[in-house]
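Example record

One chain of 121 residues, shown exactly as stored in the release files.
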Amino acid sequence: QVQLAESGGGLVQAGGSLGLSCAASGSIVSITVMGWYRQAPGKQRELVASITSAGTTNYADSVKGRFRISGDNAKNTVYLQMNNLKPEDTAVYYCAYTLKPNIFAMFHDYWGQGTQVTVSS
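Predicted structure tokens for this chain:
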């Protein structure tokens, strides 16, 4: 059983910073991609940033230059540092991993439970 545990988030004023982390535990053979998504009320879930096991990163245009994703492969942990936050960044943030839980399984996507980030103006 694979579990993703998120931490961080909360309430911050516009222009402030927050950090999120997500650690995967359980039966994990290999992780290919770790990422962060967000979903604001009434909107579809969108990719915020992702990082491959090789360290290649990808960012949504709306967060480029403000957010930074990093990963610790040894700890199966992904981080998201969010700077210069804006009210439009308010959303529930989810971590997601593409991983293989055992040698017989295919790669599959696993999701965290979500953590609220609220940016006040």
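Notes: The chain has a mean pLDDT of 96.
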